[in-house]
Amino acid sequence: MDASQQQVPYHVRMDSEDALKLVKQGASLLILDVPPSTSFGIDQQMFVVGPNFKGVKMMPPGPHFIYYSVASRHGGDTSPITGFFLYVSSSEVIVKSWDPKQERVVNLPDENEAERYAHGVRNMEFDANLAPYDLPHHATWWHLSNYINQATINRLQPVGGDISIMAEAALVETGPMTQAEKKMYEHSAMLRQRFPDFSTPGDNQGSQPSSSGRCFYTRLPGLVKRVGMSTSELTAMNLDKSEQLESVLKDLYGGEEDLLLGEFQFAFIAFLMGQSLEAFGQWKALVSFLFGCNKAPLQSRTKFFAKFLDALYWQLKQGLKGNATSTQSPTVDDSWFTDDIFLRYHYKNFIQLIRDAQAIDGDLLNKTKRLRKLVESVLGWTVDEDTEIDEDDEYAPVVVSEEDATIKDD
């Protein structure tokens, strides 16, 4: 999108006085030398840029996700999407540039030069080249990202910051994939063949293959074994993840519930906007893990689960086709969820848990009803239907055998 010549995909209408105020109060992202016809996205909006495009202005404080795909110099396919998170403050100016050799957005190596450009932005020298942020839809973005803070980004982002499915070439899927996942995985394999020189920041910084361009997501517990516990006790613990949730929050998130929710939102955005299969896997693991809790939603973590259901509602509302707030908003085909029997199983059990509870928090009940209405209308999932599940799947409920219950002391 060219800020002055090309038709914009959204409109920000206001008088000149209000516009000037928002420009000065909002953050700005200046990106030099972006190739024309590049597909550029910020939060829910993605558009094709013109020759005069140099970034975005009026960005509200908080987290944002920038992503882009450049047209091939040889014609045909565009490059894989690359994305990165930013956390901006009021009036902040971030300066980056396009590196034609690496075909990605990079920081300016000279800090003094970057500051000179930032000074130019503050003096309105690039105002005509900066597209206004899509303020009318910022409320939706807030619901998708309100638990993401700078600490979340620092903890989860890959080496160098860039998220790309091209860095997931060695990713081994431990669980079965839906047809939608298989299609994206096959598409990424095709892109790796057509763009053999495509690199991520980690490729150039000597990082290990396990971390190069890959996010550092929290590893959730699988089968839990404890010395002295009977088979029935271990089965009960693995069927109800509530005790494991307490350990995860304490040991991996420092007791901060919002950090887990921040990772939940981070993963969904990296999947929806950044097309990361690894992110979808982490999102699905978190949903299955939390839906696998029985006691926590009704007793110790009621408020947390109300927040989780609210976050999930907005993700599905925004991410599924037919519910997006704009025709330029990234969406996924419903088959990502409708074909996933395992998510469906955990969702059904959770809804039944809430429905059958004798006493329940009003906010949690309302959030559950709202989510159920959306899921039934869009995905067609009903609580009363039977759902068969493969016991070998990593997200299936665990029944501990006598052999599994045996733990040898070293």
Description:
By secondary structure, the protein is an alpha+beta fold. Helices cover 41% and strands 12% of the residues. The strands form two sheets. The chain has a five-stranded mixed sheet, covered by helices on one side. A five-stranded antiparallel sheet has the order 3-2-5-6-10, with no helix packed on it. Strand 2 and strand 3 form a beta hairpin. Helix 8 packs across helix 9 and helix 9 runs parallel beside helix 13. This is Protein AAR2 homolog.
How do the helices and strands follow one another from N- to C-terminus? HEEEEEEEEHEHHEHHHHHHHHHHH
Enumerate how many helices there are, as a single number.
Answer: 15
Any idea of the CATH topology of the largest domain? Serine Threonine Protein Phosphatase 5, Tetratricopeptide repeat
Task: Give the CATH level 1 class of the largest domain.
Answer: Mainly Alpha
Shape: globular
β content, as a range? 5-15%
Task: Give me the count of strands.
Answer: 10
Instruction: Using the 3D structure, state the CATH architecture of the largest domain.
Output: Alpha Horseshoe
Mean pLDDT: 80
What is the percent of helical residues? Answer: 40-55%
Number of discrete domains: 2
Structural class determined from secondary elements:
alpha+beta
Biggest sheet details: 5 strands, mixed
Low-confidence blocks of residues: 1-7, 202-211, 224-229, 232-237, 387-410
Strand neighbour order, sheet with most strands: 8-7-1-4-9
Radius of gyration: 23 Å
Could you give me the name of the CATH homologous superfamily of the largest domain?
Answer: Aar2, C-terminal domain-like
Determine the N-to-C terminus distance: 63 Å
Multimeric organization? single chain
